[in-house]
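Consider this:
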Amino acid sequence: MSPRQNTVLGLGLGLAAAGAATAAGVAAERVTKTRRRALLTLTPEGLYDHKPDKELVVVATDGVPLHVEVDEPDPAAAHPDHPTIVFSHGYTLSLKAWVLQRRALVQAGYRVVLWDQRSHGQSERGSRDSCTIEQLGRDLHSVISEVVPEGRLVLVGHSMGGMTVMALADQFPDLIRERVIAAAFVATSAGGRNMVTLGFGQFLGRALGRLGPRLLDQLGTRQEWLNSVRHLGRDLEDFIVERWSFASPVSPAAVRYTGDMIFRTPFTVMSDFLPSIDLHDKRDALAQFHGIETLVVNGTQDLLTPPDHSEEIVRLVPGAEHVVINEAGHIIMLEHPEVVTGLLLSLVERGLRAADEGVRVERKPRVRRTLTDVAKRRKVARARGRGRHEAP
């Protein structure tokens, strides 16, 4: 491989894993093979395989087919007044990002609906002009109209998915007011600022944001070649995924699972969405969630949507509960799955109570909690202890 090709490959992997337009010029000590073997114990039971009860296609307003999956609860656990929980994933990810939460929620008796946002996962590509947060809001409305035409709703959005939920509220406020009993904004932002900083600060981040679409388009012309040689840069790929996705040890399976979602997103798709993400501003739309049970979650070390983005959402939604998770990065639902799942289950229960008892949610005092995933810390300590014991 020529020096020029090596440069292009390294740049491409960095751009993709960061979930935006930046090249990763990084140097760091790699975890040892022994430690990687030890961290296998952090892999969730059943890995990440999941078979939905139903798969279908919903056609968006502009004709783009959207992939949707539905999980139905056991009739013995289901309740007629239970809401349907609709998940929206983040930029460069897919509905697979929610695999651990969907399992737990359906087991708790809830119907779960997930979808791949346009140009992501198994959904079809949209035109460049259609790759906007506003269109994603219309897409989510199409999914709800066809798959959940009636009944109570809980909306959960991560990163760009949270922005999609805000765009839905902006364009279809009656749906929010009449049917949504709870909403969760996970590692996301209401915007109103330069969004593409990637942990590099406003000055460098703004420059990267301007250059990103052009660089990604150039990489898109070499997409097939880059895909064919991905295995040659696997160590770099894994390092970058860990750097921008997580802030605590995760299993190699989690890194690979996340990396596969990210790197299967074409560079041109990343380029298509960046301008709309960078200009995103849905602060006014958050008024539609006044009186609705709302959860805002972020990680203390999220490089893509830092904690101050979540604090702005909480400021604009009276009564919102704000949970900050220590040692957590951007892909928080795969990094601390039990914590996130527990928070969502509690949110749904609060939403049901508020709806049934007429609780004035907006009058609740602001609640801000900082959590540490103690159970995971213990697992990591045991894994590292075994790794040291097995080391030659």
Remarks:
- The domain at 3-390 is CATH 3.40.50.1820 (Rossmann fold).
- The CA atoms of residues 154 and 232 lie 42 Å apart.
